[in-house]
Amino acid sequence: MLESASKNECFCDYYLRWITVYKEGAIRRITMDKYRMTHSWIKRLSPDLKVGELTRSTYQELLNEYAKSHERQTTMDFHHQLKCAILDAVDEGLIDRDPTRKAIIKGITPRTKKPKFLNQYELHQMLDTLELGSEPNWDWFILLIAKTGMRFSEALALTPSDFDFAHQLISVNKTYNYKNHSGGFLPTKNKSSVRKIQIDWRTVVQFSELVKSIPDDQPIFVSQRPFNSTVNGILERHCKSAGVPAITIHGLRHTHASILLFAGVSIASVARRLGHSSMNTTQKTYLHIIQELENKDINLVMRSLSELD
Questions:
Q1: CB under 8 Å to 121, separation ≥6 — which residues?
Q2: Predicted confidence band at 180 (pLDDT cuts at 50, 70, 90)?
Q3: Nearest 5°: phi and psi at 10?
Q4: If you average pLDDT over every residue of the chain, what do you get?
Q5: Separation CA 176–CA 179 (nearest Å)
Q6: Per-residue b or e along 28-67, where b marks 16 or more CB atoms closer than 10 Å to that residue's CB
Q7: Same domain, 84 and 153
Q8: The whole model's pTM is what?
Q9: How far is CA 43 from its chain centroid?
Q10: Do residues 230 and 134 share a domain?
Q11: Bridge partners for 151 per DSSP
């Protein structure tokens, strides 16, 4: 790559070769798709921009054009994906100075966010509307994610052999490739995602009966290609029927975590249960809840101190 690159090469072509050389095969497919999407935006916004023409002003113009149709956080992600390639071009002597330095990140006003999670009362109201028959269906799937906080692809990949009913455990060790027609099992998101999740006795009784006639290695919930949108639609109908805010399947994962945090479960335990690679991910995702709990702790500390003689 070093030998063939030049200052006169179109930046969009350089970037495509850069992600092919440095990223392809080293990152997950979904992440690689994001890099390819970034490349398509460069090609759309600045198809004739040469590598050697990248200055702070030309780079800022590229960011500004992208920001006209994207929120600030998305523009920030776009900037980070470009910056890695550009810094390599600086190291290779194709660009004199780092054009990404002091870049200003802009973006359109964020859309009104839908509720990300339900409180405990709302969750109970929604679960009461589920139709749980003798055969696996998406209502059972919704119940399981509410009880475990699993990711959509992790729950799809569950087979009867993943349940250890005697010890009230579910083993999460794979995901299901629902985004591809071929389907099949895939590795988990990261090493931390391989975990065992404790389940309550009622879930044990329910699912031991539900899966008893399913082969040990067969996915419980997959009979044909599953779609996230289908399950989200079913969940939304249940939310509306219960008179609670409509959330997504991923919102059920947030619901699970938030209920545990409000119940006083430690961040470390919640992180392990969700399969987060570090507690930082949990803290960042649930910062608003953690801050609310800290406020409660402060009130408790002050009340305790005021009672001292």
A1: none
A2: confident
A3: -60, 135
A4: 91
A5: 9
A6: eeeebebbeebbebbbebbeebbbebbeeeebbebbeebb
A7: no
A8: 0.69
A9: 27
A10: yes
A11: none
Give the separation between CA 122 and CA 247, rounded to whole angstroms.
11
What tokens were used for 126? 């929604």
Helix ranges, the chain (H): 11-22, 29-45, 56-67, 72-91, 120-127, 138-148, 152-156, 201-210, 228-242, 249-262, 267-274, 279-285, 287-306
Q: What is the pLDDT of residues 236-287, one digit of tens each?
A: 999 999 999 999 999 999 999 988 988 888 899 999 999 998 888 888 888 7
Written as one string, the DSSP assignment of 59-81 is HHHHHHHHHTTSBHHHHHHHHHH
- In a shared domain, residues 27 and 153: no
- Of 52, 71, 91, the position where a domain reaches its end is 91
Q: Which residues pair with 169 in a beta bridge?
A: 164, 198
Domain coverage including residue 277: 120-295
Q: Name the most confidently modeled range: 3-17, 147-161, 257-271.
A: 147-161
pLDDT at 181: 84
- The residues near 137 (Cβ < 8 Å, ≥ 6 apart) are 131
% pLDDT > 90, the chain: 75
CA angle 188, 192, 197 (to 5 degrees): 85
Q: How many residues make up the chain in this entry?
A: 309
C-alpha span between 143 and 121 (Å, rounded): 15
The structure tokens listed for 261 are: 């945090």
CATH number at residue 16: 1.10.150.130
- CB-based contact 153:178 (threshold 8 Å): yes
Question: Distance between CA atoms of 7 and 88, rounded to whole angstroms?
Answer: 13
